[in-house]
């Protein structure tokens, strides 16, 4: 049997066709779990959901200010972007501030995750570069930190590089735990990813939301990054993407970020809460519906915010002929919440 | 908790990052379950996994022979193809035999499911047609049946159309059950899909594998369709796809077919068995690893067949920089099998 509760159901006609199990943790800044479903103690790779925590040293150190990073560039440092032309331009602009080109990026190249952007790029007769990698903004931020630290940028993705040491220390500070003994993997873009309990990840985003438990410089850095994301939500994801639309709709009520393999986090400043959830099977569609349900529960939205969350909690499934064939919806554990 | 056993694990470094739960049924032609995991009695939409059963009337009625359908065209009638140029050409050729064009297809248009084919199409400056729909071969077969039955083809996707009545009757005959009371949904391509227990789907493919329980004309039709798929496995799926490679490697030992939402089936003539499995969360990656493990267990392969199945049972996961970051592997329930 799978760990976790049934968080999301996929229907076809009147029947449930598929199910996504998973776990949810909501924590306050003191580390108290205010809501939990499933197993929130088991170590989980948070993947790209913690990019905003990994960007803390970029801001806290003064590196971003020294090189004049814009809100767009800071938002892109927290992003898993779709590789649309605006994202590529922002990444290229950030590197230009450092006097660097795309060849300095160590994230690898891949086709834009936006199908439309990938087809448009192919139609233009060229292939993707590392700028199109969904992590290019985060990597531009790492390079900015390396430049400010006046260390050799090459190898900045390796655990022992001064940049990754700073990034790991920031993660440890936010999570409130040492990662020295944590299970470690290599992320899609080459940097280390450390497994941490979902409860600790939620706690980290409660700290991020409030600054509580951080020193003043780190608390200010968290605020700067959230404001950048709210000012430029398109840079955090892209056209039609959950995180972009969430921050367009909810504005400064929520900082929201997905990660690969069904991870999703949120920082909710007005409540002082952090949210972390994981879909057991790694499905993004499940994580998005579950996050919408959790946000609706916690934020008690009205008007357009309620409408947007409702559209993401119950997602109509349309076939190739445009016929509605079913929906994604919260499972019993979340819909009863 | 999720129904089903953990069939597949996804690792990162030394840790398990994600898990796919599901159910497996293996049946003989008498309907005896020779192997089962999870819940094989719960109704499940078999989706495109039953295309070969839906193609039985096309062959059994003599329609395919009357219009001179080739092995490629029969294989495409059983296919969820990738929309590569060879698939599109085969679908167009089948329609041409009927004196019809792509506008007769009622499956809707979508970009090729092969990313490379989609980008190549975009680079050529045109968009997709219904010929690129992964179901275009099945729909060409439906149109062939309509022409042979001398009924108006339009509306051939509707449950009450003479073509769908024949198709549903063939399904009922293979499943050994009435679908009159079954949960019904609309499939991605517009035709009805009926939920049936996984055990009954496995039984249907044991009948398909052996002809037992079918009349002579239907048994011959099953053999014709399997031979067409073995003769033209590329048409059944496409470049790098599981079903194509499975039939290239295993040849006439297995007819293998995926369906949407994590369904996979196989017909194993030498053993007289049918296999049906469903990944609870709908993930194709999970269904493929689980099917490879089940085929390895049942077929006891050697040499190249063993090597291909091993490569599909333990699938290396590579990041954008080409670094191996983890693998897909059978979960405890299947690996102990």
UniProtKB/TrEMBL annotation, chains A, B:
InterPro entries named among the record's database cross-references: Asparaginase_II (IPR010349)
Domain of life: Bacteria
Family annotation (Pfam families): Asparaginase_II (PF06089)
Protein name: Asparaginase
């Amino acid at each position: 049997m799978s760990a976790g509760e049934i968080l999301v159901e996929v229907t076809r006609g009147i029947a449930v066709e598929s199910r996504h199990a998973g776990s949810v943790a909501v924590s306050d800044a003191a580390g108290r779990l205010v809501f939990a479903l499933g197993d929130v103690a088991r170590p989980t790779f948070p993947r790209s959901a913690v990019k905003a925590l990994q960007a803390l040293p970029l801001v806290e150190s003064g590196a971003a200010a020294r090189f004049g990073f814009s809100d767009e560039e800071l938002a892109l440092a927290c992003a898993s972007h779709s590789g649309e032309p605006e994202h590529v331009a922002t990444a290229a602009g950030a590197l230009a501030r450092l006097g660097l080109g795309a060849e300095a990026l160590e994230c690898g190249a891949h086709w834009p995750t936006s199908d439309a952007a990938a087809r448009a790029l192919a139609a233009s007769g060229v292939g993707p570069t590392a700028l199109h990698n969904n992590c290019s903004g985060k990597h531009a931020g790492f390079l900015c930190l390396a430049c400010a630290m006046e260390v050799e940028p090459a190898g900045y993705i390796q655990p022992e590089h001064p940049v990754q040491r700073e990034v790991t220390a920031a993660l440890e500070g936010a999570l409130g735990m040492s990662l020295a003994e944590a299970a470690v993997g290599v992320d899609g873009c080459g940097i280390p990813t450390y497994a941490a309990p979902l409860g600790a990840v939620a706690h980290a985003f409660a700290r991020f939301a409030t600054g509580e438990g951080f020193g003043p410089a780190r608390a200010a850095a968290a605020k700067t990054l959230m404001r950048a994301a709210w000012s430029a939500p398109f840079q955090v994801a892209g056209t039609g993407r959950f995180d972009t639309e969430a921050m367009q709709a909810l504005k400064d009520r929520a900082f929201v970020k997905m990660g690969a393999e069904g991870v999703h986090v949120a920082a909710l400043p007005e409540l002082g809460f952090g949210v972390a959830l994981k879909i057991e099977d790694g499905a993004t569609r499940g994580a998005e519906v579950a996050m919408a349900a959790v946000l609706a529960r916690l934020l008690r939205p009205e008007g357009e915010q309620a409408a947007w969350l409702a559209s993401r909690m119950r997602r109509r499934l349309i076939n190739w002929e445009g016929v509605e064939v079913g929906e994604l919806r919260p499972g019993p554990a979340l819909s009863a919440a």
